[in-house]
Amino acid sequence: MIQLAKQLNCFENIHSIPGIGELTTAMIIGEIGDITRYQSGRTHSRDTITKNDNKKERRLLFWVVMNIIRGQRHYDNHVVDYYYKLRKQPNEKAHKTAVIACMNRLLKTIHYLVSNR
C-alpha cells in the first residue's frame, strides 16, 4: 500500500507534515482519495461534523490528531498549538471538541499542501 501511495504526487506533501508517517499518509490517501475534488476553503459551508461522513476516514483522522498531540515533544506542529489554544481559552473547549477542530485544521492543511504545491 505504501509503495502504491508513493507513486502519487500528493504523497510527499502529506508526509511532510510532522507526526504523519508513511503508513498514515498511505491510509489518508486511500480513504480520502483525490482531495482536490473537495471545496477549496474559500467558500463557506456548514462547519459541523455530520454522521453521513465516511466513518473510517473520521476515525483515522481522529487517531492521527491524537498521535500528533501525544508526540508533541518530538516535533513542532501547528495542530498541537491549535489544540492547546482551544483548551486554554477563557471558555475552554472539551477535549473531543478540540480534537475535532484539529481534525478540520489538519484536513485544511492537507488540502492546501496538495492543491498548491
From TrEMBL:
This is Transposase IS116/IS110/IS902 C-terminal domain-containing protein. InterPro entries: Transpos_IS110, Transposase_20. It comes from the Bacteria. Coiled coil: none annotated. Residues 12-41 form the Transposase IS116/IS110/IS902 C-terminal domain. Pfam families: Transposase_20.
